[in-house]
Design goal:
single chain; 221 residues; alpha/beta; four-stranded antiparallel β-sheet; 8 helices; globular
Length: 221
């Protein structure tokens, strides 16, 4: 899939958050957006998700204006993982499905993709999660959030600094998961930490709401 922004500008009172952003994101690939805090990276993710409408310019997915997609189709094709994992007091199964109908095979498949099948099997899909996923480590909670997003088999997975609060080992595992997912879909990640930026095939710098030249474009070994 390809997502493209053409001349995207987002204005707020007394502030231009994004300024004439033109960018093509093609997958499957792992693409990183980096730059200083307040540069517009999270805003850009929200524009890609269709949660914010640009003041000017267009956003397309697979060549079609994002606004033309029905809401349900957009939600199926685009998945978002926030910086903080949002898990709630409910069975683990419900934390993954969020009320949608998925069979156990689909749940075990995505848990396997994020390396949590054995951990969850010891507890069971119907194990009750405590507030904020207590009992799971920070890295495991973040990977559960990724599994939730992958359950819908999106064309594009967008993540906002997913490793910001993780220790080095948890970050390494998460990066490996995202590298594997980037072989089958477009993965776009806002990142500051070197491990995630270093794993990306393309890196773009965003500052003052403007995209600079790619900071790096490589083919990972």
């Amino acid at each position: 899939p390809t997502m493209a922004l053409t001349g995207v500008t987002l204005e707020r009172p007394h502030e231009v958050v994004l300024k004439d952003v033109t960018l093509e994101l093609s997958g499957p690939a792992l693409v990183a957006l980096t730059g200083p805090s307040g540069g517009g990276k999270t805003t850009l993710l929200r524009v890609l998700l269709g949660l914010l409408e640009p003041t000017r310019g267009t956003v397309t997915l697979a060549g079609l204006d994002l606004a033309e997609y029905p809401s349900a189709e957009r939600q199926r094709r685009l998945a978002y993982v926030p910086q903080e994992s949002h898990l709630f007091r409910a069975p683990l199964r419900d934390n993954l499905t969020l009320g949608a109908e998925f069979g156990d095979d689909a749940l075990w498949a995505v848990l396997g993709e994020v390396g949590l099948a054995d951990t969850v099997r010891a507890r069971g899909l119907d194990a009750q999660l405590h507030e904020s996923g207590a009992g799971f480590s920070g890295g495991q909670r973040q990977r559960l959030t990724v599994a939730r997003a992958l359950l819908r088999d999106p064309d594009v997975l967008l993540l906002d600094e997913p490793s910001a609060s993780l220790d080095a080992e948890s970050e390494r595992i998460l990066v490996r998961v995202l590298e594997r997912e980037a072989k089958r879909r477009l993965v776009v990640v806002v990142a500051h930490r070197p491990a995630l930026i270093g794993a990306a095939e393309r890196v773009f710098w965003l500052e003052h709401g403007q995209i600079g030249e790619p900071a790096r474009e490589t083919t990972p070994a």
